[in-house]
Amino acid sequence: MEQSLVLIKPDAVQRGLAGTIISRFERQGLKVVAMKMLHLDKALAQRHYAIHWDKPFFNDLVKFITSSPIIAIIFEGDRAIETVRQTMGATDPAKAKSGTIRGDFGLNIQHNLVHGSDSSETAKKEISLFFTPEEIFDY
Ligand code: UDP
Ligand code: MG
After folding, report:
1. Class in CATH terms, 2-135
2. With CB atoms 3.0 to 4.6 Å apart as the test, which of 36, 83, 115, 122 could cross-link to 7 if both were Cys?
3. Residue 56 C-alpha to ligand 1 middle, in angstroms?
């Protein structure tokens, strides 16, 4: 069993797409084992996206992700990391396949609705940024 950290980004929460997005992951057999709504502060946003600190889009990305509340979820399942990435689709919605979350609903490369961990190492790091062990359910 694997776990992946998913963030439903400000654009998705504002557009009322949280339920649809959660449902898409659930339909792939992924199970919610932790979930919370939160308004990210700049410090946590910068830590979460630390890998991108030197990219030209970093400051705008931090502004966007801290602009209004998000929903953080841990999904668990066999090959959860790859399944989440496939269900999300490519980073740029213009290139994401139809049938993926970003392909069907994403507006542009920044406003692309969801985050999902990209490796098991990243998933562990990201999960520990957002959740304590007591907040993660085993059922
Ligand atoms: N992003 C952006 N401009 C870019 C590339 C990425 O605004 O040119 C944003 C976008 O919201 C993306 C996030 O930065 O989801 C993280 O980028 P990454 O390459 O890690 O994409 P992801 O893993 O989310 O598919
Ligand atoms: Mg990424």
Report:
1. alpha beta
2. 115
3. 11
Of the listed ligands, the closest to the CA of 111 is: 1
Report which of 85, 88, 106 is spatially closest to residue 11, judged by C-alpha positions. Answer: 106
> What is the best residue among 109, 111, 118 to mutate for testing ligand 1's pocket, by most ligand atoms within 8 Å of CB?
109
Domain ranges of the chain: 2-135
Half-sphere exposure of 43 (CA within 13 A, CB side): 1
Is residue 48 annotated as part of the catalytic site, yes or no?
no
pLDDT digits (tens, 9 = 90+) for 86-113: 999 999 999 999 999 999 999 999 999 9
Which tens digits make up the pLDDT trace of 6-22?
A: 999 999 999 999 999 99
Q: Cα–Cα distance between 133 and 112 in angstroms, integer?
A: 29
Q: pTM score, two decimals? A: 0.98
